[in-house]
Amino acid sequence: MAGETNVSLWVRAEPFSYGALHIAPHPRLNFNNIKKIVIYAKNKGETGFPKLSYSVWRHIACNKLHLSEELAWLYFATCHLLSENTSPAERLEWDQKFAEGSEVVQDALKNKVRVGTLKFVLFLYIQQLNKVSLKASLVAGDEWPTRCSSPDLDSSGRSTPRSNNKVLDDHSHMVFLQNNIHEVLELLIEYDTYGTTQGDLSLTLGAVDALGFVIAGSIDRCKTLQPLLDIAMLQTVQHKSGYSKLMRSFSLRLLQNWIKDSLVQNPFGISACIASGRRLSWPMGVAGDDLKEGKETQTKRGRIATNAHTVPKEHIKGNKIIIMSQVGKQTISRSSGTLENSSVKIHRCHSAFLYLLSPLRSVTIEKCHNTTVILGPVETHVYLSHCESVTLIATARIVTVSSCTLCTLHVLTPNPPVILSGNDSIQLAPYHTHYPKLEEHMAEAGIGVQRNMWDQPLCIGPDHKEDTPVWELMPITDFFTFNMPFEMEGPTRAIPGGLPSKYQRAIAQRNRQIDSWQKTVKEAGLTREQRKEFQGLVESRFHIWLSESGHKRELDNLAVPQTAKH
């Protein structure tokens, strides 16, 4: 057909990767009940439609669906974070008012928060991503994902529970939408816009606009991105999308067929980045002896790639990706323009030290072990999944942990850390480091210090029992501050917000002990030869400790120039 427009539509990654909790949804959060929310909300007038207030949702969630209030707020706040265009300054202001307000003031602040009603309905529906279906597993059916109890072996031969791979799931997102597109569109039908017969169901412009929350599109091979509604209303597309200028609405049947025919795999997803991304030549620290001999490393080099060169500049957030895979026994440190506002995927890294000191959009850490990850402020989510003996040091709006063992989280977060199913021996600790540009980066990401809920986790899932908790607060005796081993320019000179009082007292007591020991040595009256012998003994014991603890490799790696320009 002359003038045919080449339309590509794909599923947005963020709502599925970070919006859908990686746990089976509450049984009452099903299609029929979600469908009723639109009717109920419209009957509530301006507090329910076209934007839904938290007060109305809390009533539905707690009194109708029997969700806990904590879970109801988590759903609402997460959808608001991913769907509403709130500036970092506005988030900082809200957090400060909330932290300083009484319980009554806090409730009033929550009740003022609103999200698009139809967007929120879609958000609730995609929680079905992680629904467990015995029938589907028996017949290898089409519901995604199906969980399996048989283990996988990772690269080190460890047995790990098999689960859907959140790092590589963009294809599954597309399949889910293809298989469920009719129900998705049915949720968006406003019942007062029905036609005269069952055959002419229609969707309003507002409904298709809301659908843009989960579907993105382009008409020029992804050189630019356009809202779904704008594409669907193009003159050359209307005959396929089902738009009627007269009725100012869309035919559900034609719209459904057009979306299914136009769906492609996310061009800014993980699979596309692996296939056509640009490899990043970030310096990786190597042991000193290997460096002198000219060897790069005896271990398999990790792979780092990005799609930054393909993402339109005005659509960086949620689309610019950096993948770090299989980095082992190495140290990487970056603070760069490429890293800023990117969604970072850290996959199957082991015995590594990763310093990513720029403001980030989101971070997924999956199937890593014996690794320390230090992050710049994260605007939305840090998701830790299927990891063992990982230390996370981060400031982030939302931190979620799933199926992890022996992991320590030093976090500063305005929301309770979310602990899902499958975890064991999770240790929570206060954020304990700083670097010169930290406060500047925190302001860019909308993360403040007034409201810090690092020690008040929200446990969701059937395997949480009060008598056998899977988490604990770090004992004071195990707590030490973390020093950044780099020189950078910037005004931050201390840990933002300081340390909780009991941890600060422990550090002060330890410092007094060090001062007392140094004073004792100074006043011991040692001769020059004795001082030299004593110093040699201390250094010898220190080097033995470095080797036995594994810190020697970390220090050797840090000796490699860690430039951060790209």
Biggest beta sheet summary: 15 strands, mixed
Rg estimate, integer Å: 26 Å
Helical run tally: 19
Strand content is 15-25%
What is the CATH fold-level name of the largest domain? Pectate Lyase C-like
Mean pLDDT: 86
- List low-confidence stretches: 134-167, 194-198, 286-299, 561-566
Overall body shape: globular
Instruction: Give the CATH class of the largest domain.
Output: Mainly Beta
Q: What is the level-2 CATH architecture name of the largest domain? A: 3 Solenoid
- The helical percent reads 25-40%
What structural category arises from helix and sheet content? alpha/beta
Distance between the terminal alpha carbons, to the nearest Å? 45 Å
User: Assembly type of the shown chains?
Assistant: single chain
Number of strands: 24
When the domains are counted, the total is 3
